[in-house]
UniProtKB/TrEMBL annotation:
A GO cellular-component term linked to this record: plasma membrane
UniProt keyword annotations, A-Z: Membrane, Transmembrane, Transmembrane helix
Protein name: SLC19A2 protein
The organism of origin for this protein: Fopius arisanus
Any Pfam family: Folate_carrier
Domain of life: Eukaryota
SUPFAM superfamilies: MFS general substrate transporter (SSF103473)
Entry's family note: Belongs to the reduced folate carrier (RFC) transporter (TC 2.A.48) family.
InterPro entries: Folate_carrier, MFS_trans_sf
One term of GO molecular function: vitamin transmembrane transporter activity
Record-annotated membrane-spanning stretches: 46-65, 72-90, 102-120
């Protein structure tokens, strides 16, 4: 595959990965009548799981990316994102929301594979272009 096609695929993936329009409203959603958690539960029991799981899985993902290469980790990124957002939609218990945050931390930690895949597949003379394309697509999704 040539560098243009790889950058197009990664740009599309980066945009879709970061396009989360409901994310600023998750706290309101969790404390509303839909999920009915208290604000204290959300800030003390649910959100810290995501932070700590991100830190823990980042080390594991960093090592697995070198061992398994990039595509399986990028696929795991997509699967963990699907699992996280399905759990957000259908989960009702505190344990389900903590599992959601664990999967979300895993989802965020797989950015390592997204960014390093470019440099493994593209010739050095195209690094600057591909880096700018994929980073701008990633930021455009936000």
């Amino acid at each position: 595959m040539d560098w243009v096609r790889i950058s197009q695929i990664l740009c599309m993936f980066g945009f879709l990965k970061e396009f989360r329009p409901g994310e600023p409203f998750i706290t309101d959603y969790l404390t509303s009548e839909w999920k009915n958690f208290t604000s204290e539960q959300v800030t003390e029991d649910i959100y810290p799981v995501g932070t700590y799981s991100y830190c823990a899985t980042l080390v594991v993902i960093f090592l697995l990316t070198d061992f398994l290469r990039y595509k399986p980790i990028i696929i795991l990124c997509g699967l963990s994102g699907i699992i996280a957002f399905c759990t957000l939609t259908f989960g009702k218990s505190l344990g389900a929301m903590q599992f959601l945050e664990f999967m979300y931390g895993f989802y965020l930690s797989t950015d390592v594979a997204y960014y390093t895949y470019i440099y493994a597949k593209v010739d050095k003379k195209h690094y600057e272009k591909v880096s700018s394309y994929t980073r701008s697509a990633f930021l455009f999704g936000r």
